[in-house]
Amino acid sequence: MPGREKIWRRLCLLGPGLALLAAPALAAQTLTIHSWADHQEFVVPLFKEQHPDTDVQTIRATGINDFIEKQTTMVLSNTPVDVVYVPFQAIRTFIDKGYILDLTPYIRRDARDLGWISEIYRPVYEAGTKDGKVYGFPLELGAVNWWYNIEAFARAGLPSPNDLYRQQQWNWNSMLDLARKLTIPDPNNPNVPQQWGIADHWGDWKGQPWLYQTGGSIYSPDRSTVTLDRPEALKAVSFAHALLHEHRVATPFGSDWQASFRSGRWGMAPWWNSFGIRDSYLSKNSPAKWDVAPFPVGPNGQNMTTAHTHILAISATSRNPELAWQFIKLAGSPPGHLRLMQARGWPAVHRSNVNTWLADAMAQGLRGTPNVVEQMSNIKIYEWLTVDANRLVVQGLADIWSGKVPPSTGLADIARRLRALPAQ
Predict the structure, then answer these.
(1) Which CATH number applies to 3-141+309-349?
(2) Fold for domain 143-307+384-419?
(3) Which contacts (CB < 8 Å, 24+ apart) does range 106-110 have?
(4) What is the mean pLDDT of the chain?
(5) What is the H or E stretch that residue 54 is in?
């Protein structure tokens, strides 16, 4: 046995923590990463400490759609790429088409230093799996929270969502009541109020908890049946539709909803947890002070939220799969993900990092974070869709939100189109 491998075996026997920090050295080579964001870049310095002779090069796409198109072309042309940062929209398609490698053999081989896998929120970990095989480790936990304008609530003399949550009165009905009271009409413009109760661009609605809080879904759990036209789904979509067209408390679909944030005249907003933390959208665009709360509890008493995650995976065209695995293993570990947490303030993927994230969020003034953490114990990764299925759902919901078709008709049309696609 070569000396290097013998040393590595001994390190593994000393425990997972030491084994992780002392990954086996590889010969000098280049690791190529293709990504649509900079999330993985925070781990590169730590990786270079372990692999000082490795040159890390990043190919940066201009966005998610650009990444999907370019990575597809790279795979089909057999262009060498080692690590890919796969967005949640493409995970299903990349697995089904064989664009990323199965990591299960590596996980079995290195099981001794992967004890931290059990610390990952289970639904988040399973987002990168299919049929018992693992294709990637999560690098981000994008849970949906409920953001609110502290100053708008103070002006209106209203209890905050966190107050109601602690009193077990935070639900769809109480949220609607607040939204009505926070929507301030403009006497000079009956179509656009001075302040919207809810600011939302609606494009990410299917990723928010509404649908799942009524027991609805897009597909059945085994993905054999389209369920978007069932009563449970209709209940959720009809409620959201009423916020727009009956109660008129939410920014209209297609409107300049961001103008509400720039002016500070907004009440509440359902959005990812990256919305209002350090160097975030709110900190750059809203003059108001804000806090975060759990998503309103559903009509069936379901205190849960949804999330998406993006995964680091090995490209099927990698010429250095072992080196790519070492990077993914480090980035997916608690020490690796801590680098991203500290840089961006994003939520912990690992339960062992939760207290660190909680303290950081509280220090930023997000006093509702403990309630958010409590709700995240019941988290659902919203459904995987192929690129084609995702496009159909987004386009169909846009017709409903804009008022072109009523919810029942729109959902029936989306379901019909989904059933015409190849099996999921």
Answers:
(1) 3.40.190.10
(2) D-Maltodextrin-Binding Protein; domain 2 (3.40.190)
(3) 106/325, 106/329, 107/134, 110/329
(4) 89
(5) none
The residue-averaged pLDDT of 271-285 equals 73
Cβ atoms within 10 A of the Cβ of 339, count? 20
Token pair 């665009």: residue: 285
Beta strands in 90-199 (DSSP E): 129-130, 133-134, 137-138, 142-149, 196-198
In 3D space, the residue among 141, 131, 214 whose CA is nearest the CA of residue 377 turns out to be 141
Q: Which amino acid is at 365?
A: G
CB 71 within 8 A of CB 34: yes
The residue extents of the domains of the chain are 3-141+309-349, 143-307+384-419
- The packing angle between helices 231-245 and 387-401, to 10°, is 50
142-177: pLDDT as tens digits: 899 999 999 999 999 999 999 999 999 999 999 999
Spatial neighbors of 420 by CB under 8 A, at least 6 apart, are: none
> In 348-386, which ranges are continuous DSSP H helix?
354-363, 369-375
**CB-based contact 244:253 (threshold 8 Å):** yes
- Of 13-22, 189-198, 345-354, give the lowest mean pLDDT range: 13-22
Nearest to 161 by CA among 173, 149, 152, 170: 170
